[in-house]
Design a protein that fits this description.
One of its GO terms (cellular component) is UTP-C complex. It is built from 9 helices and 6 strands, in the order E-E-E-E-H-E-H-H-H-H-E-H-H-H-H. The protein has about 325 residues and is an alpha+beta fold. A hairpin with a 2-residue loop joins strand 1 and strand 2.
Length: about 325
């Protein structure tokens, strides 16, 4: 098997033996590059995480779990996050797409009614709504981009050190782990023609399942739109810090009650009176400062005149009239 340096820059080189396939009946060595995870924005789990690049295109959670088990034993590997999965999580979800533009702006600026519930309940409900509104998947197993990256989370910091030491040992023994070895039976769907046939079958989902996803999406859209309408109705009666009332669309909503309007007007008058008082006090401060400056100027001029008069007297000397 070809040799490779054990370390390149700050990456440890992890050689993996790829077994022969019907499409390519030769055994080859694939190189993964591993280092401690040091993202630009630190997280609490960085100390027990590893950053991997150049992962094989057919990588899965089960593949990497078996690979790390062959290096340091079972129980060390916890989870893996692939680059494409992270990007998909950051992109727009069905829950975000199911919001009208006006609803998005109002909910971002003023919050939604669901804020009163506990955070755990919100996250659980959000996950259920996303799952219900998402269309059925058409692939039994994803393929990664060539040269894709991943972040592996291990049990503790000691496991990270053990993995890096095990990688260094591989270069001395030349006994490389085999990719896809010891995978649980039925855990990873096969690729090839079976994979493509399954994709063709899943591209035509069951009509009832598809209708359920569409109904969930429509219901989610309508509820978000209703929340935005309620916020817009409330904003029509609440003046901002400058005393202005936000003008919002939705004239079909019922007008505000008289009590709500009077309360909003009272708050606006109080804010205006407070600003007026602050302005008057500011002018008083200016008047006091100007008077002090004028008094200081008068005292200065008086002192200068007094000094000039004394100098003139000394210059003239004692006057003695002629007899």
């Amino acid at each position: 098997m070809p040799s490779s340096p054990p370390v390149i820059a700050d990456f440890s080189v992890l050689p993996v033996s790829i077994p022969p396939l019907p499409s390519f009946p030769k055994s080859v060595v694939h190189y993964l590059y591993v280092r401690r995870n040091t993202p630009k924005i630190p997280t609490p789990t960085d100390a027990r995480s590893l950053f991997l690049t150049n992962v094989p295109v057919d990588s899965s959670d089960a593949h990497l779990r078996a690979l790390f088990a062959s290096l340091v034993g079972a129980g060390r590997f916890q989870s893996v996050s692939f680059e494409d999965e992270r990007k998909e999580a950051q992109s727009q979800s069905p829950l975000d797409a199911a919001q009208p533009v006006s609803a998005v702006r109002l909910l971002q600026a003023h919050g939604s009614a669901s804020k009163k519930r506990k955070r755990e309940d919100e996250e659980a409900e959000r996950a259920r709504e996303e799952a219900a509104a998402r269309l059925p998947s058409t692939w039994t197993r994803p393929l990664r981009r060539s040269g894709c990256t991943a972040v592996v989370l291990l049990a503790d910091e000691k496991s990270v050190d053990q993995v890096l030491k095990a990688i260094a040992k591989l270069h001395r023994t030349k006994m490389y782990p085999t990719w896809g070895e010891n995978l649980p039976e039925g855990k990873v769907p096969p690729l090839g023609s079976i994979w493509l046939k399954a994709h063709n079958r899943l591209s035509y989902p069951d009509r009832d399942a598809l209708q359920a996803s569409v109904d969930a999406f429509s219901e989610l859209f309508a509820r978000r739109e209703q929340e935005a309408a309620e916020i817009a109705k409330r904003l029509r009666n609440e003046p901002d810090e400058d005393g202005f009332v936000t003008v919002t669309r939705g004239g079909r909503n019922a007008p505000a009650s008289r009590n709500e309007a009077e309360e909003a007007k009272r708050k606006m008058v109080e804010k205006q009176e407070k600003k007026k008082e602050e302005l008057i006090n500011f002018y008083r401060f200016q008047l006091r400062e100007r008077k002090k400056a004028e008094q200081a100027e008068l005292l200065k001029r008086f002192d200068e005149d007094r000094k000039k008069l004394s100098a003139m007297r000394e210059k003239r000397g004692k006057f003695v009239p002629e007899a």
